[in-house]
Please model this.
Amino acid sequence: GYAKASGGHAIVADVYYGQRHVTSNKPIKTPEDMKGLKIRVPNAPLYRMFPEAVGGKTSPIAFAEVYLALQQGVVDAQENPLPTIKAKKFYEVQKYINLTGHLTGSNLIIIGAPLWKRLSDEDKAMFSEVLKKAAERVTADIVNAENELVEWFRSQGVTVLEIDRKPFRDMTVPFHMGAAATWTQEQYDKLQAIQ
Model:
């Protein structure tokens, strides 16, 4: 597993980071609405998969430059979790938040091997318990923030569209085991079985 491959690092908790949604200056209700759309995504295969599967043209602009790129029309759209959309004020230069929920992000809390190896079993258990509880609390806070942000964005005059995600998913699933995949079929099947 990870501990062996990393030289002994320990994953002690997983924090929900949020679902990613597309912001744009036109409504996106169907995959066809994304055909030819220039969309900023992080420069990584997993992030390019969704927009490319539905016909978008990805552009890996540096995160610090996204607001300006949207404002100047260098790209038509971008995708991020709702808290990030608010924090970076992308809603100021985009009329629509399309709730695509195309990717769910998480952050791992990892303790490096040198420290982890020095800890007693009791200390490892304590660290793990405290960090898991903290992760649960942060996850709950992010879920609550996502729920509240939909209404907050609407109060700011942004149109928030809840869309039928199935057509988007149907177009994306064939790409899951494509060239961008960093997982085996067995790993993919296990993840898909999680409800």
